[in-house]
C-alpha cells in the first residue's frame, strides 16, 4: 500500500481538512471492526505507540494504539487550528504537524506568499519532510486551500511550489475553493488570479470548487428538509447540519459546504484506502486525464451529494446515479460539461457495482458527451468495493472539460475591473519583493490558459457525428 499526506493551509483549508479527517475516521470505524491497524488505515494514518520512547510507529497488522493523521496544518492565524486542538480530533494531530502565526495575511496574496512564505520556508519544508519520512511509499500530496484569502491563496501556492521543489516525483493534487462574485473580500480577484498562475505552473491536478455552487447545493438540501413527502427530510443532527467533527459551532453555516468538499476527498482517496476490483492509482488521474500539462483543471461532480445518511431519501438507482454525475446540479463549479468539450473523464465508483454496470452506462451516456476527436475513448474508471457509510454506492466524476473557461473568464473580468483603476494595488506593492509586474504576468498567464481552452472549444464544431444507420423496413 502507498501513503499520502494532506497539507491544509489557511482557515478554509483547515476547516475542510478537519471534516475530511472526521469523516474518514468514521468510514474506517464502520469497516474496521477488529480494531487492527490495517493497510487501509496506513494509507492516511500512522499508528503510534506512546509507550515507546522514540514515539515510533507500529507495524501494519497490530492493534490500533494511537492514530495520527498524515497531515500538515498551516495557518497564519491561530483560531481554526486552536479550535481543532480543542475539539474531538485533538488526538489525531500533534504539535510537530502544526504551524501557526497570530497576525494573519490580511487578505493579501503577497503577504502570504512572500512575507510568510519566506519567513516560514524552512519550517514548512521541515514539516513536509518529516511527514514524508513517516511514509514507506509516498504517492501523493493533497493540498487544500482557498483562492480568495491571503493565507490560502498566497501561502498555499508557496507551499505548492515547495512541494514541487522538494518532492518533484510525488503527485500534487490541489483542491482549491474559488470565491463567489459576491465575495466580501474586495481583493479576492487579485488573490485568485495571482494564485491561478502558481496552480497552472506547479500542480499536477487542480480540483476547482466554487463557493456559489456549494451554497446552491446546501440550499437544495435545505429545501429537502422542508419537503413534506415522507422519506425526504434532513436529519437534525446529521453531518451536514451539525458542527461536530472538529469545527466549532460558530462555523456551522459553513460546515455543510465543507462537508461536501470533504466528501469529494473521501471519494478520490477511496481507492487508496480500501480494496476494490478495479482500484485507481492516484498517479493515474494525472496520467490519464491531463493530455496537456497546463490544462489540468478537473471539474468534480458527486452523487449522492451527501453521505453518512444525512438525507433520508430513497437510494438512487444505479443508472440514475451515472446520469446525475453529468448534470449541472451535481457539479462543484457552475458549469455544464455537456455543452462543452471533454478532453477526458474519470469515473470513481464505490459500492457493489460491477464492471459491466460501468461499461453499460458509459455506452449509454457516450452519445450525449462530446469528446475531442483524438480521444474518443478517454475514459478512466475505478471501482472501490467499500461504499460511503449509509449508502449502497456513490460516484465521483472528474471531467477535464473546457466548461471551466467561463469560470476563469469571469474571474479575469473581476480582476480587470480592479486592476484598471489600480484599486488596492498599494497594499500589495508595499510588501517586500512584490512587483507590479506580478499582476500583469498573472493576468497574461490566465488569458493564455483561457485561450488554450478556447482553441479546443473551436474544434467542437468540426466533430463528425456517427454515420446514420440504415433503417430496416418492416
Automatic annotation (TrEMBL):
Entries under Gene3D superfamilies matching the protein: Helix hairpin bin, Tubulin/FtsZ, GTPase domain
Taxonomic lineage: Eukaryota, Metazoa, Chordata, Craniata, Vertebrata
Alphabetic keyword roster: Cytoplasm, Cytoskeleton, GTP-binding, Microtubule, Nucleotide-binding
Stored PANTHER family: TUBULIN
GO cellular component assignments: microtubule
Subcellular locations according to the entry: Cytoplasm, Cytoskeleton
Protein name: Tubulin epsilon 1
PROSITE patterns assigned: TUBULIN
Family: Belongs to the tubulin family.
One of the record's GO molecular function terms: GTP binding
Domain Tubulin/FtsZ 2-layer sandwich: 278-413
Amino acid at each position: 500500500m502507498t501513503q499520502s499526506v494532506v497539507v491544509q493551509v489557511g482557515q478554509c483549508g483547515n476547516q475542510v481538512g478537519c471534516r475530511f479527517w472526521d469523516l474518514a475516521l468514521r468510514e474506517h470505524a464502520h469497516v474496521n471492526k477488529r480494531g487492527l491497524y490495517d493497510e487501509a488505515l496506513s494509507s492516511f494514518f500512522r499508528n503510534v505507540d506512546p509507550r515507546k520512547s522514540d514515539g515510533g510507529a507500529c507495524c501494519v497488522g497490530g492493534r490500533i494504539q494511537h492514530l495520527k493523521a498524515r497531515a500538515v496544518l498551516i495557518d497564519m492565524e491561530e483560531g481554526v487550528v486552536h479550535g481543532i486542538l480543542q475539539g474531538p480530533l485533538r488526538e489525531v494531530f500533534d504539535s510537530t504537524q502544526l504551524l501557526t502565526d497570530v497576525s494573519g495575511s490580511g487578505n493579501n496574496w503577497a503577504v502570504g506568499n512572500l512575507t510568510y512564505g519566506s519567513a516560514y520556508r524552512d519550517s514548512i519544508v521541515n514539516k513536509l519532510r518529516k511527514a514524508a519520512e513517516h511514509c514507506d511509499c509516498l504517492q501523493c500530496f493533497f493540498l487544500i486551500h482557498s483562492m480568495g484569502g491571503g493565507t490560502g491563496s498566497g501561502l498555499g501556492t508557496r507551499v505548492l511550489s515547495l512541494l514541487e521543489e522538494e518532492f518533484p516525483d510525488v503527485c500534487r493534487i490541489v483542491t482549491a475553493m474559488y470565491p463567489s462574485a459576491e465575495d466580501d473580500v474586495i481583493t479576492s480577484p487579485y488573490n485568485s488570479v495571482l494564485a491561478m498562475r502558481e496552480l497552472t505552473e506547479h500542480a499536477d491536478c487542480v480540483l476547482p470548487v466554487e463557493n456559489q455552487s456549494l451554497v446552491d447545493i446546501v440550499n437544495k438540501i435545505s429545501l429537502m428538509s422542508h419537503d413534506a413527502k415522507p422519506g425526504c427530510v434532513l436529519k437534525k443532527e446529521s453531518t451536514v447540519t451539525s458542527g461536530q467533527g472538529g469545527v466549532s459551532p460558530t462555523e456551522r453555516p459553513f460546515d455543510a459546504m465543507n462537508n461536501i468538499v470533504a466528501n469529494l476527498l473521501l471519494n478520490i482517496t477511496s481507492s487508496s484506502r480500501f480494496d476494490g476490483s478495479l482500484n485507481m492509482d492516484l498517479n493515474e488521474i494525472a496520467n490519464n486525464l491531463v493530455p496537456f500539462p497546463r490544462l489540468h483543471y478537473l471539474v468534480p461532480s458527486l452523487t449522492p451529494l451527501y453521505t453518512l445518511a444525512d438525507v433520508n431519501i430513497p437510494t438512487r438507482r444505479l443508472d440514475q446515479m451515472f446520469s446525475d454525475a453529468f448534470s449541472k446540479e451535481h457539479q462543484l463549479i457552475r458549469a455544464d460539461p455537456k455543452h462543452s468539450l471533454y478532453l477526458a473523464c474519470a469515473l470513481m465508483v464505490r459500492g457493489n457495482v460491477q464492471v459491466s454496470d460501468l461499461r453499460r452506462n458509459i455506452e449509454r451516456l457516450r452519445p450525449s458527451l462530446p469528446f475531442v476527436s483524438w480521444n474518443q475513448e478517454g475514459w478512466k474508471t475505478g471501482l472501490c468495493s467499500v461504499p460511503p457509510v449509509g449508502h449502497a454506492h456513490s460516484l465521483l466524476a472528474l471531467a477535464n472539460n473546457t466548461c471551466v473557461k467561463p469560470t476563469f473568464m469571469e474571474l479575469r473580468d473581476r480582476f480587470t475591473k480592479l486592476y484598471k483603476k489600480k484599486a488596492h494595488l498599494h497594499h500589495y506593492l508595499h510588501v517586500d519583493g512584490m512587483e507590479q509586474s506580478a499582476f500583469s504576468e498573472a493576468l497574461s498567464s490566465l488569458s493564455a490558459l483561457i485561450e488554450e481552452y478556447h482553441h479546443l472549444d473551436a474544434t467542437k464544431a468540426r466533430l463528425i457525428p456517427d454515420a446514420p444507420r440504415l433503417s430496416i423496413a418492416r
